[in-house]
Write a structure and sequence with these properties.
single chain; 56 residues; mainly alpha; 0% strand; elongated
Length: 56
């Protein structure tokens, strides 16, 4: 996969890890993906609560 400087910058800002290190180290990759999954679930719950508030 080709990655851009923008992707590298985003990885550094969000996860404090470079993209090349993310690709090489499984332990780091798993930690990043776990954090992403947790953030995704949090956003889903927030959206659901907001939608229920708007319709309730």
């Amino acid at each position: 996969m080709k990655y851009t400087s923008e992707m590298e910058k985003a990885m550094q800002q969000s996860h404090h890890i470079g993209f090349s290190e993310y690709q090489r180290k499984l332990k780091q990759r798993l930690a990043v993906e776990k954090k992403r999954q947790q953030e995704y679930q949090k956003c889903k719950l927030f959206t659901l609560a907001y939608m229920n508030q708007q319709h309730g």
